[in-house]
Design brief:
With 291 residues, the chain is α+β, with helices and mostly antiparallel strands. The chain has a single domain, classed as Acyl-CoA thioesterase, double hotdog domain (Porin), CATH 2.40.160.210. 20% of the residues lie in helices and 37% in strands. It contains 6 helices and 12 strands. A 12-stranded antiparallel β-sheet has the order 1-2-4-5-6-3-9-12-11-10-8-7. The relative contact order is 0.15. The model has no long low-confidence stretch (mean pLDDT 91).
Length: 291
């Protein structure tokens, strides 16, 4: 499949925040038919805001975020950065995203200078490589007549992230997996600049797309189920080793538990050669409208 740069360029523009005052940045949302801002967008933009207040010799190693209110895609988002601490090895930032005079999201980010040490990590699961799998967009083209009209425009739009799932699931039919595991290869749909801070922001944007799906798989329904109210509540990530977001990465995600109208999920992210480069945890709301 040919790699298309247009959607990736749009995503890079989305992550290129406008500085409007010291420690204050403005981000916009894409011109799409959304009721609320995509959580991965807010996370990626908040990380970029924090990155722009630290020295270049420090990279984010962890972030912890909370989604407080739905984001309004019709108005810009202001990101206010609080420089909590600048130490010799670590720096800490707190970012608050603001719309309509209220906080909609908050993130804490820790940065660390590069240090060498002994290494160990969990082995990557034995799975088919991306070259042996069907691309998600190509699969959607084969079932376009089966997708409900109100969903068709969403699935037919150009995407900045290529996806090749280990198991292909129909986007509008119930999905049940036991255990509830979601594995897929993904990468930016075109080459991106060689900047590790940008790679981290792209990964943060992308991973939010798939974690909550693990919770739905435990019970046999889809994120698109009209009887479900679903939203990210909190999301944490740890960046363990350098990587490139425009090269294939494996998302190995699973649901840990669902209870109290919430689902808890975790994921490891590996390179093609098996290096563990990041891990993520996410809790999301999953409330049935019928009680």
């Amino acid at each position: 499949m040919e790699r298309v740069s247009g959607p990736v360029t749009d995503l890079l523009d989305l992550l290129d925040l406008e500085p409007i005052e010291v420690n204050i940045f403005r981000g916009r949302s894409p011109d799409e038919d959304r009721q609320r801002v995509f959580g991965g967008q807010v996370m990626g933009q908040a990380l970029v805001a924090a990155q722009r207040t630290v020295d270049d010799d420090r990279q984010a190693h962890s972030l912890h975020s909370y989604f407080l209110r739905p984001g309004d895609p019709a108005v810009p988002i202001l990101y206010e950065v609080d420089r909590i601490r600048d130490g010799r090895s670590f720096a800490t930032r707190r970012v608050v995203a603001i719309q309509h005079g209220r906080a909609i999201f908050t993130m804490s980010v820790s940065f660390h200078i590069q240090e060498s040490s002994q290494e160990y990590h969990l082995s990557m699961p034995q799975v088919d490589g991306p070259e042996d799998l069907v691309d998600w967009t190509d699969y959607l083209a084969t079932i376009q007549d089966e997708i409900p009209e109100d969903m068709a425009h969403w699935f037919s739009r150009p995407r900045p992230i290529e996806t090749r799932p280990l198991k292909v699931h129909h986007p509008s039919k119930p999905v049940f997996e036991d255990p509830p595991i979601n594995q897929l290869w993904f990468r930016a749909a075109a080459p991106v600049p060689d900047d590790q801070a940008l790679q981290q922001a792209l990964l943060t944007y992308a991973v939010d797309m798939w974690l909550l799906d693990c919770s739905t798989m435990a019970h046999g329904y889809q994120f698109s189920d009209p009887d479900m109210q679903m939203a990210s509540l909190d999301h944490s990530m740890w960046f363990l080793r350098p990587f490139r977001a425009d090269e294939w990465l494996l998302l190995d995600a699973e649901c840990i538990t669902t209870a109290g109208a919430r689902g808890m999920n975790r994921a490891n992210i590996y390179t093609v050669d098996g290096r563990l480069v990041a891990t993520a945890n996410q809790e999301g709301l999953m409330r049935r409208q019928d009680g």
